[in-house]
Write a structure and sequence with these properties.
Layout lengths: L1 H50 L3 E3 L2 E9 L2 E12 L8 E12 L12 E17 L24 E2 L4 E13 L4 E13 L6 E16 L2 E18 L4 E11 L2 E12 L2 E9 L5 H5 L1
Parallel strand pairs: 5-6, 5-7
Antiparallel strand pairs: 1-3, 2-3, 3-4, 4-5, 7-8, 8-9, 9-10, 10-11, 11-12, 12-13
Length: 284
């Protein structure tokens, strides 16, 4: 009887200490976001201000260790990018929320060391690209410098493995040609290691496209869908379409080839085909 009571007492002590240790760990993990939140917000703000010539605002930043465990999750809410001259006051970009996942170990880096971003996602936002009559684009907001830095001073390291856009609207307008392209309700995701110079990016996209020129409407809320593998060569700025399957409304479409950015121009070599189609699908 005494032996049974002793074993029972020992088991209760082990259970008690195990529960206490788990509770302490949970409390510690819950406290870490409060300890590192200001540091990360400062790093993000410094990176933006040091590299972008625009007014960037956001309401709040929320750091969590549980949302995307084992990665730390940083959520930035109500982000807005407002242009300066010559597009003073125009909204280039806005998003209800942007979510980053970070390696936990990078939280303990010094302010001078970069944060390693594993994934990025944004939801409920809009991107507005505008060319004025002088052919100047409002997206050219990177600060220009004639000084070539000896080493990178960025506070963020883009070791991205996946990204996602959820319910994003995109508008492109050229004042000279009066060309307007609108892509609404974009749901897009991509997976691939951007830490490599050459990678295959596996993408999935759905959206609605509208197109008009000189107030003549050619497309109006046309459904598009595309699942494609995009071969990316970052050194040579070459983007190759590999396995892909797309639809414009009900019309199936496949395309192959590549796009290469060369100096101030682009080099295209693209082919399109419809693998199977009927007059009904073509008409749609």
């Amino acid at each position: 009887m005494k032996k049974e009571k002793k074993n029972s007492s020992t088991g209760k002590k082990i259970l008690k200490w195990s529960f206490s240790i788990i509770l302490v760990l949970l409390i510690t993990l819950s406290m870490i976001p409060f300890l590192f939140k200001d540091k990360i917000v400062t790093l993000v703000s410094n990176t933006i201000n040091n590299n972008i010539n625009a007014k960037v605002t956001f309401k709040e930043a929320d750091l969590s260790l549980f949302r995307n465990f084992p990665f730390a999750s940083l959520r930035v809410n109500d982000v807005t990018v407002i242009n300066k001259a010559p597009f003073l006051g125009d909204t280039l970009f806005n998003a209800k929320k942007i979510n980053f996942t970070l390696k936990l170990t990078s939280l303990f880096n010094s302010v001078e060391e970069p944060l390693e971003i594993n994934s990025v996602s944004m939801a409920n936002g809009a991107i507005n690209i505008l060319f004025n009559k002088e052919s100047i684009g409002n997206f050219d907001i990177a600060k220009k410098s004639n000084v070539i830095p000896e080493s990178s001073e960025s506070s963020l390291s883009l070791s991205i493995n996946e990204y996602a856009l959820e319910n994003i609207d995109f508008v492109f307008f050229d004042e000279t040609s009066q060309l307007k392209l609108a892509v609404d309700s974009i749901y897009h995701s991509g997976k691939g290691s951007f830490s490599n110079d050459i990678l295959d990016l596996d993408t999935k996209t759905t959206a609605k496209i509208s197109f008009e020129m000189e107030n003549v409407n050619y497309l109006k809320n046309v459904d598009v869908k595309l699942d494609a593998v995009l071969g990316i060569d970052l050194k040579n700025a070459t983007y190759t379409f590999k396995e892909n399957k797309g639809y414009i409304n009900q019309l199936p479409l496949e395309f192959n080839g590549f796009i290469q950015l060369i100096e101030e121009n682009q080099l295209y070599d693209m082919t399109f085909k419809t693998p199977t189609s009927t007059f009904k699908n073509l008409l749609a």
